[in-house]
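batch_manifest entry 22 of 60
target: Biotin-dependent carboxyltransferase family protein
source organism: Gilvirhabdus luticola
requested by: lab member K.T.
priority: normal
notes from requester: please return tokens only, no post-processing; we will run our own comparison against the previous entry in this batch. if the run fails, retry once and flag.
--- input ---
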Amino acid sequence: MVKVISPGFYSTIQDLGRFGYRQFGVPISGVMDSYSAKLANAILGNDENDAGLEITIKGPVLEFQTDTVICITGADLSPILNSILIENNKPISVKKGDVLSFGRLNHGVRSYLSVLGGFQTHLAMNSRSMYKNITESQIIKKDDLLIINENIQDCNFNSISVDTRSLKSNIVEAYQGPEFDKLSKEEKKTLFSQKFTISKENNRMAYQLNELVINKIQPIITSLVLPGTVQLTPSGKLIILMRDCQTTGGYPRVFQLSEKGINTLAQKFTNDLIEFKLLTQ
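--- output ---
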């Protein structure tokens, strides 16, 4: 078990997502930055879909009630084990009674904590990803007991080359969306020639951008959307859907972020600047 002494700002158990239920209006959810989450599992030799703890901005305080091995990736939140600063992207042995905490946020927004064998929390619709009305809670809470594998035997850890560029890059890669060709030349030029600012309206469901784009596209019939879909509202606001997004939407879909683009955006926060880069199919 891992006891939650303090939950941090917004910490959730996430795997790669909940697939096969979108026809019922159930979001995919899952880790916001799939590269960092998969990296943590890969270093420990876990399955890539093993559930980890997604930590946002301010980290939790966790007491381990069994021996295990952990790995922390993604944002640098100055992880501390028993008052000693530890490194990201490495397997770290943890003993019963050890306390993991976090300090200063140096870069990025979301950090990922993986344990050997993954967190064994409640499975709902083939996923452990926390989401309101699907799982008992949508975030971890003080005094929660998180189940982990207590049977540590032979462990095969991996040395992996780590690419941290997406944590610091402001380039967000995207493909043309279904309504992209309805944009005028001027609108397209604006989308690729200027920088956009992340608004205070940003979370696991969607990121909004501050700058407006002239929108002359006619409204569309409500259609399918996915994590990474970039919608353009009648007022000219860009809304980028993220992992907990709805399954349909009625705004023109001008872009579809690549997986790398979603990962990059997941590590941005209020007032950060981004630029779109159009990819060819």
